[in-house]
Design brief:
Shape of chain B: globular
Number of strands of chain A: 22
Structural class of chain B: mainly alpha
Shape of chain A: globular
CATH class of chain B: Mainly Alpha
Largest interface: A-B, 28 and 18 residues
Helix content of chain A: 25-40%
Number of helices of chain B: 4
Largest sheet of chain A: 14 strands, mixed
Number of helices of chain A: 11
Structural class of chain A: alpha/beta
Order of helices and strands of chain B: HHHH
Distance between the termini of chain A: 52 Å
Number of domains of chain B: 1
Distance between the termini of chain B: 17 Å
Largest sheet of chain B: none
Oligomer: heterodimer
Chain lengths: 387, 75
């Protein structure tokens, strides 16, 4: 079955039910099916050639380099079945989508909702947090949403009281893409005592692998739970998390060499280290590379450095992670100015903004006399770690 | 107060154009939240997301007015 077949099945069961609500406009299942069949534009991105073909998502996650990930219909359906079984999506589910729809966290929720005959409320991001919270006024006690840890931190910092007022309406909330602090996990458990709160392990390449309801009395940080229905997860002798199953990507578009580095004989090797406990639950122990996770977006510091080095007033530089109260980590660029050229961080920041993705632009800049390097001339990232 | 707010924000968010009259449009959700956090902590005033309106975040002047109002409410 294709996704279109699943939506057809939902349209037969719930023809007049709203499938998507966007800007107050409702698209019923019968209308949605016709729109998809005729390939008409929808208020959610297709990210592929059509609803019966392979999808293509952009990512930097596992390899740290920007790539197009090919995700088959079979993988999308396997991911959706994983979520439906593990998190309890149903025809009653009303899922509020407020994050970036080209990001797996939100994009992956479109399909299980439509396959079950639930309703999607699609918002224009989280900039208007008031609009996001108002979405929970929708008359249902089966509301759900996905938020990256940075967005959860924003909500808890400024609107915890208002979020608590929706405690009886929010059936489940999922987070992922970055580590959530134990303090935020515990605060969520306190203000949403009856809500299932999931911390999920997933990536564009692997699909949705494991999930853990941390509102279980234990609230274990770093735990992402057991593998889902279609997923098999194991740890290599080197401590690396590897996985198998029909939810894996087909490969990187036009890049067989990179594909072979991570996907071999049906096994995908992630960039994370982990361990599996005596209950079969996966625990994330950190990344194996230099990639910096900024609020759920993975940034390869070399991308930032290579862009900065093309700016005339930069002689040398290194991009390092620093602590940030909302995103967990933020980017800082240490810059050695070129001789005889006037250096100012603002023009450099504006230049980087013009040639990088918004999440790749460092928030902080510091002028330094030299950049520490290893004896063989490579940037000494270890020297700057934790500084 | 306006200049103090300018310095506070410029230190933390060097990319923000504080001479803009369209701050709310220019900022993303992280930028808005960061400014709220900076102002809330520096002036010890309670701010919520309902304060993050296009009117309050129009420009530096409107941010200063919002802070002044919150300080007066605090007494």
């Amino acid at each position: 079955m294709t996704i279109l077949d699943h939506v057809f099945a939902s349209a037969q069961k719930f023809p007049d039910k709203p499938a998507i609500i966007h800007h107050g406009q409702e698209i019923t299942y019968s209308r949605l099916y016709l729109m998809m069949k005729e390939c008409r534009p929808l208020p959610i991105p297709l990210l592929g050639e059509g609803w019966d073909k392979t999808f293509c998502l952009h990512t930097t996650g596992t390899t740290g380099q920007a790539k197009d990930v090919l995700v088959s219909q079979q993988a999308v359906i396997a991911n959706s079945e994983n979520l439906i079984k593990a998190q309890g999506f149903s025809s009653d589910t009303v899922f509020v989508l407020a994050g970036a729809l080209d990001h797996l966290g939100c994009w992956s929720k479109i399909f299980p909702v439509l396959m079950c005959g639930g309703t999607l409320i699609v918002l224009d991001g989280l900039k208007d947090m008031d609009a996001f919270l108002s979405a929970f006024d929708y008359p249902s006690s089966h509301l759900a949403t996905f938020l990256v840890p940075a967005a959860i931190r924003m909500l808890l910092r400024f609107d915890a009281g208002r979020l608590a007022r929706y405690a009886d309406r929010i059936e489940f909330l999922e987070t992922g893409a970055a580590a959530i602090s134990q303090a935020d996990m515990q605060q969520l458990c306190t203000i949403l005592p009856n809500t299932r709160l999931y911390n999920t392990y997933a990536s564009t390449e692997t699909g949705i692998l494991c999930t853990y309801n941390f509102n279980d009395g234990e609230c274990i940080p770093g735990c992402v739970g057991r593998p889902m229905h279609h997923s098999r997860v194991f740890i290599t002798p080197e401590g690396q998390i590897a996985c198998q199953g029909p939810m894996l990507m087909s490969g990187y578009r036009g890049d067989e060499a990179s594909t072979c580095r991570v996907l071999r004989e049906g096994t995908f090797y992630t960039a994370d280290n982990g361990r599996i406990d005596e209950h079969g639950r996966l625990h994330i122990l950190g990344r194996r590379d230099d990639v910096i996770n900024v609020g759920g977006y993975k940034v390869a510091p070399t991308d930032v450095e290579n862009a900065a080095l093309t700016f005339p007033s930069v002689a040398d530089c290194i991009c390092v992670p620093v602590e940030h109260p909302i995103t967990g980590k933020a980017l800082k660029l240490l810059v050695v100015p070129a001789e005889g050229v006037e250096y100012s961080p603002k023009p450099l920041a504006l230049f980087l903004k013009s040639c990088l993705q918004p999440y790749q632009v460092p928030l902080f800049y510091q002028q330094v006399e030299r950049i520490e390097r290893t004896p063989n001339g490579k940037l000494n990232r270890r020297f700057y770690a934790g500084k | 107060m306006k200049e103090e707010i300018r310095n506070l924000i410029e230190d933390a968010l060097p990319l923000v154009d504080l001479d803009s009259d369209f701050l709310f449009t220019d900022l993303d959700s992280l930028g808005i939240t960061s400014i709220m956090m900076i102002l809330s902590e520096h002036y010890d005033i309670p701010l919520e997301h309902k304060d993050a309106t296009p009117r309050n975040f129009k420009n530096l002047e409107s941010l200063a007015q919002m802070v002044q109002k919150k300080l007066e409410e605090k007494g």
